[in-house]
Amino acid sequence: MKRAIIIVLDSVGIGELPDAADYGDEGSNTLVNIKKAKPDMNLKNMCDLGLGNIDGEEIALLGKVDTAKGCFAKMAERSIGKDTTTGHWEMAGVITEKPFPTFTKNGFPKELMDKFEKAISTKTLGNYAASGTEIIKVLGAEHMKTGYPIVYTSADSVFQIAAHEEVISVAKLYEICQKAREILTGEWGVARVIARPFVGTEGNFTRTKNRKDFSLPPTGTTILDLAKQKGQTVVAIGKIEDIFEHRGMTITDHTTNNVDGIEKTIQYLKKDFEGILFTNLVDYDMIYGHRNDVEGYKNALVYFDQKLPEILQALKEDDILFITADHGCDPTTASTDHSREYVPLLVYGKNIKQNVNLGIRNTFADLGQTVSDYLGLNANFAATSFYHDMKKG
C-alpha cells in the first residue's frame, strides 16, 4: 500500500535564491539566521535525516551528521513569486509563469473597491498594505463603531478582510470573502482572499483561529487531481484544502494550529489507505515569521523536531515521507513579508536509501514528479523525478 506523505513547514526557507535581490530579500536565510540568533536551537531529529548536510554556505551550522538517515536536498522555486499558493502549486506540479497581481503601492483601485462595496452593501476601511496585527490596532476601534470591514494587502497577492467576530460574524465574513473572490478575477485576480477575524477590545485586539483562505483554482493538473482520479485517497490537513480550492481531495481536516496539525497527521498515518497525505503547518509563517518573533519561531521548530520520531514511528512499510517548505519568512530581517528562498527537502522511508544528497533541485515540481512516479500517476510535469535516485534496489 503506497503512500506519499508531504509535510510543509510553512515559510521554513534555507537560503536566498539567486534572484532574491529582485524581491528585496538579499540576506534572507530563515533556518540559518534563526540558528545564528538562537544558537541553542537543536533540530537533532531533522538533522539526523540530513538537514545540516544540505548543500549551501553555513547550512552545516544547523548540525551536520556523518551519515544521514534519509535523503536530502534543497529546491529552488521556478514560479514567479514567493507566496503560499505558488509554492504549494509548484510542489504539486503546477509552475506559475505569470505572477499573480499585487497591490502594495497604492492599494486596490477605486473601480474594484466600488464594485466590492456595492456587492456587500457597506463601505470599507483601510485599503493599503499593512501587517495584519498592526492594521487592527489602527483601525479596529473605528471598525467596531462603524461596522465597516477592514481591507488590506501585503507584498503577497492577497486581498485580506479583517472583522471583529462580535461585529461581523465569522459566517458573514466568509460570505463577504466569497463575494470578493467572485469579483477578484482577470487583472484583479489575486491568488488569495483571506478572512481575518479578530476579537478583544481596543488596545487588546487579537486574531482568532477562524482564518479562511479563498484561493483561485490551480491553473493545471496536480498530483492531487491525478491521485483522486485514480481512485486513491487524498488527505488534506490544515489549509491545503483552501490553497487548492478544495480540488483533488477525498478527505479534508482543517486544523487550528501546528500542534493540532501534527497530531492529525499522526492520526491519519495510523489509518489504512493508499495515496497522498498532504499537511501544512502554518504557524511558522502566520504567527512567528510575519511578526518577526525569532524565539517563537525557534520554539515551534523544536516542537516539530521533538514530534518527528513519533511521525517516523507511525510510517508504514511502503510510506515515503517528504518534509519541505513553500517559501521563506525570515524573522531576523527587517521585513515582515515572505522571502524568496530555497526550501529544504528531507525524504525518509523504510525502502528509501540513507545518506543520499539529491543536490539542488531546479523546481519544487521535482517533488510532484517524484510522487507521481512512486504512485503511478503518469504525470508529465516540467520537472525531473528523483525517485530512482532514492529508492532501494
Essential attributes:
single chain; 393 residues; Alkaline Phosphatase, subunit A; Alpha-Beta Plaits; 2 domains; six-stranded mixed beta sheet
Account of the protein in words:
This protein has 13 helices and 14 strands. The protein has 393 residues and is of the alpha/beta class. The strands form two sheets. It has an eight-stranded mixed beta sheet with strand order 10-9-11-1-12-13-2-14, with helices on both faces. Strands 3, 4, 5, 6, 7 and 8 form a six-stranded mixed beta sheet that branches. Helix 9 (258-269) packs parallel to helix 11. The longest helix has 21 residues, at 294-314. The chain is globular, with a radius of gyration of 20 Å. The two termini are 18 Å apart.
Helices, strands, pairings?
Elements (H helix, E strand, L loop, with lengths): L2 E7 L20 H8 L6 H6 L21 E5 L8 H8 L18 H11 L4 E5 L2 H15 L3 E4 L4 E7 L5 H14 L8 E8 L6 E2 L4 E4 L7 H7 L3 E5 L2 H4 L7 E3 L4 H12 L5 E7 L1 H7 L4 H21 L4 E6 L18 E6 L7 E6 L3 H11 L11 H4 L3
Parallel strand pairs: 1-11, 1-12, 2-14, 3-4, 5-6, 9-10, 9-11
Antiparallel strand pairs: 2-13, 4-5, 6-7, 6-8, 12-13
